[in-house]
Design goal:
Length: 253
């Protein structure tokens, strides 16, 4: 659960080329897009935190680490290691070294929340083993996304130094291209995340680890975790649309 889409900080809005007229209008548009997506992701992440806190109080028989080991073995996976990693909500599956990395709390806790997260990360391991197409596609996009993110940082830095002097037209197209890449990545991430949660719930159900009440709680926790990715994708797409409108607007003048 650790994919973050690079967002353009609000203070950079100051350097956004505005194309003469309607400065306040465009500026307000930017603030609306940024404010709206930030509010959405804040609401989702605070709900996620609240639910996880609540569901981490509901005990299960085994710890997150044991859930992961069990789910992997029962899916016929023996070459994936279950490890613990520092931080909170830092849980992820690493396909490059085939490790399920669980945050300390999830690794050691025996709760509905820990089981849901552990099973979700193992869902990614199962995707990897079964060559799930969207996961492969997403992995192949990673190098391009890294370049786009770094490029965007450089462009933003140039923007601060003096975007107007350097010529807005070319730079804004670079931003649009970079946002296109990060938005595509955020969208490809969605089926990967929803599918991992689906696999987690199918296994939790068949394992008999959780009763129906616990099962519903686990499902709810994973729903809100998935919503953070939806918010990320919406935020990225909104920025892309905003900058595209900027380009179109300046062309018309
Ligand atoms: Zn995930």
């Amino acid at each position: 659960m650790s994919v973050f889409v690079t967002m353009i900080p609000a203070w950079l809005a100051q350097t956004t080329p505005t194309g003469g007229s309607g400065f306040m209008g465009i500026h307000m548009g930017y603030l609306l897009v940024m404010g709206g997506t930030m509010l959405l992701s804040f609401l989702i992440s605070s709900t996620l935190k609240r639910r996880f806190h609540e569901y981490s109080q509901i005990p299960l028989r085994i710890t997150g680490a044991q859930v992961a080991e069990l789910m992997l073995r029962q899916n016929g996976i023996y070459d994936v290691k279950v490890m613990h990693t520092p931080g909170h909500l830092t849980d992820h599956y690493d396909p490059t070294n085939k490790t399920v990395n669980l945050s300390e709390a999830v690794y050691h806790q025996n709760s509905v929340a820990a089981a849901a997260v552990a099973a979700h990360e193992c869902g990614h391991a199962v995707q990897h083993q079964t060559a799930y197409a969207w996961l492969g596609f997403r992995s192949r996009m990673v190098p391009m996304v890294n370049i786009a993110s770094q490029l965007m940082n450089v462009v933003m830095l140039l923007g601060v130094v003096g975007m107007f002097a350097l010529g807005n037209g070319a730079l804004i197209w670079v931003i649009v291209a970079c946002l296109g890449v990060t938005t595509a990545f955020a969208l490809v991430t969605l089926p990967v995340e929803f599918d991992a949660s689906r696999r987690a719930m199918v296994w939790l159900e068949s394992s008999g680890l959780a009763n129906s009440m616990e099962h519903d709680r686990a499902k709810n926790a994973l729903f809100w975790a998935a919503m953070t990715y939806v918010a990320g994708a919406i935020g990225s797409a909104a920025m892309l649309v905003y900058y595209l409108m900027q380009v179109m607007g300046s062309r018309r003048e």
